């Protein structure tokens, strides 16, 4: 029975019917030309129904779903109609949600917190918190997640994770929901519960389309409409159980007591001979539907529990006339919510936080012990120089490595949330920048104070601050370099490329020291301008060694060549360096690297024409150099 009062705060949405005609999808395949994945398929998915896209592995189910959801648009021809009108992708994305196969969920939050973040981002700001909590409770109740409200998302079972990923997208009542294989990895019972829930969601007036692997005979009848695809063509469209009479009508008999879904899959795999062309032509490649589900049909054998109240206005409404805001909340609110979420996750991940603190302390203590008291020792000036360089290498690698490991994974989550219109990418990226800098500053302070004291550097506040500023800027630039690499590569490649990419920066930072700047070849001089480590090293040397009193040579030494530190600085070719100039250059490099990582992330998620052109050129070059299979 419908609960009239439920979800009463949610925005009203129009019912949405989706129709597609002559959809063809081709992917280029090197020298071999191209591969046809979808071949002029047609079909219709009506609102208020649960639709299943079925087919053997590799038939093109996910591809069709991706195209209909607007996730894949390149290399697609044909038309997609929404309520009879040509689809406007921008508008369509505002009303549809896509739950991808990898049910990635933000870690370190409880189910309730994850839902509250989604509600804060996706529901109107003026809605009182009590209203949001009521909606959350009802959705959790609907998806049988109430008992897991206080459980951290990391601890959820596979089925619960799937249901939570659906719950997160239900929050602002989308009229269209796409799900890529929501039942994969679930046992029979969870699978049946999941489909039943989707059915209830569809009955509320939404269009629910999911791709599924062979369902049981019982579940096969739960779907209002099944769309069977084989080798990129439609071989059946209509009510599931009707597939048996359909096949019988063309002389193909499904054995008695056989699961019709299994039989159709075997048929698609040519287990009973090649019937593909016949099936495609009878159903006209999806232009015709064989049958509709009888209206009076009840789902008595699947326990659906109490029904969900319809939360859509069943009044035909044109999608383009819907409220045209892209996001329910302002940029600044999105930024605030995301910063809070990131800090909470960082704080909850105590193990990782402690590990980072320990690394900064242990490495700081090691470095400090190795270079113990060398800061004031005239015979150890070269060693002291090595210490400065060592600090910079630390601040280059340590902040970059976790980013290379985490960011490529995080992108998958951002992709889902951003595609489903939770927030603007710029709000996410700014929140990421702001949330990571304080921890970098705190950890950096631990290391700097430790090594500064242990190595006996001059106890002057000004020099300490200058030393600290260089170290922190170097660390945030390195973090940005990690973000740039992580934006374009997967974890494995990023972990390889990151450390390798850092090597030229190090080499160029120390190139030519001691032998005079004039002896350096012009090309290398130019390359040196691109090494941020060089600017850091120069600034560090200047901050720590310039205008110091002559050091006292220990009695054990006969002669100390570099007791005059100004002389040493001149010898290193850094006599004319101005500290603040180098700091300005480092800040500029930081901004360029951060901007670059934002640009690359944006291109990864929403490629513009330039990056599409670059991708095409890349593919062309690869195919003509025989780099593709
Ligand atoms: N970018 C691509 N390049 C080459 N082939 C591709 C590409 N994308 C998809 N394909 C091919 O298209 C076919 C359909 O892929 P799709 O992922 O849609 O299949 P599916 O029916 O969802 O399979 P599964 O059930 O195994 O997930 C597969 O043969 C796949 O290898």
Give the tags:
10 strands, four-stranded antiparallel beta sheet, transmembrane, 2 domains, 629 residues, elongated, ABC-type transporter activity, disordered N terminus, alpha/beta, binds adenosine-5'-triphosphate
How would you describe the overall organization of this protein?
The protein is α/β, with parallel strands linked by helices. The chain has two domains: 234 residues, P-loop containing nucleotide triphosphate hydrolases (Rossmann fold), CATH 3.40.50.300; 285 residues, no CATH class. Helices cover 52% and strands 10% of the residues. The strands form two sheets. Strands 6-7-8-3-9-10 form a six-stranded mixed sheet, sandwiched between helices. β7, α6 and β8 form a beta-alpha-beta unit. α3 packs parallel to α5, α12 packs parallel to α14 and α13 packs across α18. The chain is elongated, with a radius of gyration of 31 Å. It starts with 17 loop residues before the first strand and ends in a 5-residue tail after the last helix. The structure holds adenosine-5'-triphosphate. Adenosine-5'-triphosphate binds next to β2 and α1.
